[in-house]
Amino acid sequence: MMDHQSHPEEPLQSSKSDSTEALVTVQEAVSCHADGSDGKHVRKSHHSQEMKSNLVSRLNRVEGQIRGIKGLIEKDTYCDDVLTQIAAAQSALNSVGKLLLEGHMKSCIVERIQAGEHEVVDELLVTMRKLMK
C-alpha cells in the first residue's frame, strides 16, 4: 500500500508493486450480490478492505492533483504546464478505472455468466464504451 503524497504539480507515478498488490487483491473478491433489507437482490461492491484502501488512496492523490491544477490556473501558470498536469490526473483516474474494471470482470461478470445471466455482457459493453470516450 502506498502512503506517500504526490505533489499536485508532479505527475502521479505508480509503481509495479502497487499494480501487483491491487491485482492480488482483486482475486480475493467475494460475491457481488447481497440481499437488501426488503429481501430484493441488490448489487454491491465486492472489494476487500485492502482494495478499497488502495482505491481511496489513489483517488485522494487525484483529488490533490485537481486542487493543484486549480492553483496553477489561479497563478496564471503557463498553459502547457497545466495541460501536462491535466494529462497526469486523467492517467491516474484511468488507472483507478482499470483496476475497478478488472476486478469487476474477474468477479461479478464471471459470476453472473456462470449463473446464466448473459445479459451482463451487454451491460459490460456499455460500461466499456463509457470508459473509452
Low-confidence stretches: 1-30
The best one-word shape is elongated
N→C terminal distance: 30 Å
Gyration radius from CA atoms, angstroms: 18 Å
Cross-sheet strand order for the largest sheet = 1-2
Count of alpha and pi helical runs: 4
Assign the structural class, choosing from mainly alpha, mainly beta, alpha/beta, alpha+beta, or little secondary structure.
mainly alpha
Strand content: under 5%
Give the helix proportion (percent range).
55-70%
H/E element sequence: HEEHHH
Major sheet summary line = 2 strands, antiparallel
**In total, how many beta strands?**
2
Please tell me the overall pLDDT: 79
What quaternary form is this? single chain
Quick overview:
Helix content is 64%, strand content 5%. It is mainly alpha-helical.
Q: What can you tell me about this protein's structure?
A:
This protein has 133 residues and is mostly helical. 64% of the residues lie in helices and 5% in strands. The protein has a two-stranded antiparallel ribbon. A hairpin with a 5-residue loop joins strand 1 and strand 2 (41-43). Helix 1 (16-26) runs parallel beside helix 3 (79-114) and helix 2 (49-74) runs antiparallel to helix 3. The protein starts with 15 loop residues before the first helix and ends with a helix.
